[in-house]
User: Fold ComEC/Rec2-related protein from Magnetospirillum gryphiswaldense.
Amino acid sequence: MDRLLAERERWPLWLPVFLGLGIAAYFSLPVEPPLWLGLALSVLVVIPWVVLRRRAWTAIIALPLLVLTLGFAIGQWRSVVVQAPVLERHSGKVLVSGVVAEVEAVADGGQRVTLERLQVNLDGPVPTKARLRLKQAEPVPVGAEIRLWANLMPPSQPVAPGAFDFARHAWFLGLGAVGSGLSEVEILTPPGQGYWLNRLRHQVTLRVTEAIPGAAGGVAAALITGETAGIPRQVMDQYRDSGLAHLLSISGLHMSLLAGMAFFILRGGLALVPRVALNHPIKKWAALVAMILTFLYMLLAGAPVPAQRAFLMTGIVLLAVLLDRSALSMRLVAWAAVLVLVVSPEALTGPSFQMSFAAVAALIATYEVVAKPMAGWSVTHSRPHHRLLLYLAGVVLSTLVAGSSTALYGAYHFNRFAVWSVLANLLAVPITGVAVMPFAMLSLLLMPLGLEHLALVPMGWAVTVVNMVAAWVAALPGAAITLPPLAPWGMACFTLGGLWLLIWRGSWRLWGLAPMVLGLSGFFLAHPPDLLVDGRGYAFGLRMEDGSLLVSRGGRIIKESWDRRAGPLSIERWPKQGRSHDGTLSCDPLGCIWRRDGMVVALIQNEAGIAAACASAQVVVSAVPVRDACRGPRLVIDRIDLWRRGAHALWLEDLKTLSVAKWQGKRPWSHRPVRRRKKVEETPSEPVSETQKDDI
Assistant:
């Protein structure tokens, strides 16, 4: 208790932690709780606190519980507020009209369009918002009402238990359908007064990519407007494998450079006018202008979570200048996290929030320790080569701290670890700070004059150099390591231990190392499934003798997700007829037989193969309905099971199965099979290829 009271000034830093625990408790529930539950729990905590408020220990216990229950309630109410109609089933070819809310150019051609106020003739709920992939290259004007023939689908469910849940992501975006355009776009009404910000963002992106062609233009657009769809997939992979992906996310580096440039240029310019400098608070004027510009830049970038966090922290610092107050750095992080969680509680489960706040909190906590020694050293070592050495040490230390603090979250979400990230950041961050971002900010100032090319051309040169660094580092031996999936409990232990280590200042902060090590042990306890099947029985994945995963077929999303969750993928091709190299898999036109660990597994693709498979196999996985025709096997997963519960994972050792439906639970965004209603006449539907699904 004495240690706790001695660090009383650090208590407010736990406010976002308990708020996040309440939000995490809501999202981890297997069923959707009644709407009144969160507020009822908060009332139950407040009552004893009011009665016993004079007791010293009451605030220590009751306040965290109150914040935790409020976080639970915030998560509940947010999921209700964003509720929107969701498409029940594939629409087939339908005539769709709506207002273009957002347009993103895609690197491999075409564009991705978000439509609002959707109008389409459907049997069932009609979404109000949909995202379509269009093949036409001519940009669709933002704000225009358009009409086209399209193929609509519900937001896709995870391709494996534990994989990325796009359905939940779409739920909080209000996105009720995705699909692809099947005809040219017909403009019904030209753009009106609405959607001016998205229109401006799209126009800026077009002007950037016109001045900077190719991959450098896609990266430059991402740095200015936050649109990453124009970055080629190969370049994006190189940034991830080299540890430079954070540069593509508009965050602290971008905001601080913009705010710093605006503040010092305006203040320096006003200082040249003695009458103004001596009679007016030019420092506060500069801070106010910098705050306004950073806010507009955040809006221009689409206000992603890292940009929100960076704006909030930069804004609080500038507000402190306006109020003649000094800013407390760790409290900046805490209040920024609280504001983001209150506005968008679903951000807690995403990589942007976790990696952004983990990096900033770790950096500030580290520099709280090393700031004084570094300042003392700089006083006694003031020569140019000493300053260069101090700068390099700062870059290396920042990279090590930020990289190590975000590595687990990257491994949890992407199952990848960039080995050479320190080297890549040491080379790329100075180029980004000195050449890329200053020219990016200058281009925005010159754009109203039509002179943006004066800044964008040199920016393109600098971006090309950064791209070359990313490509070179990503090509180094062992540049990126694929890690096994980490269970949620492992990430929770690591996070809570890390927070304990970062927030407290006394020696007891080292207690946080124990749960961090426990969380990391989750990697060694991971046991990937032996068999994966998608929700249609279209694609199978089998664990071979060498530990690799042999996949029958599937698009990019299936293969990449299965590679991360249960890989590595085998380089061998699935035998359409014959045996695999290790002899465990044999296939014919009716299906396949897989023998592993004394178990016989039948994979059925044709109704004609049901009888033979059910007579000889202990496990049957069928892409066609089996119903009661299979009574001999110990486990049967047929087309009906896949339709009802989505993709399945199977462990042969104890015949344990896990479906997407069981993993998701009964939540508003969960997998819900809907029976097709019979019609007298139906518009023929066009099948959706795996390639089309990947593009959506």
About this structure: The first helix runs from residue 2 to 6.
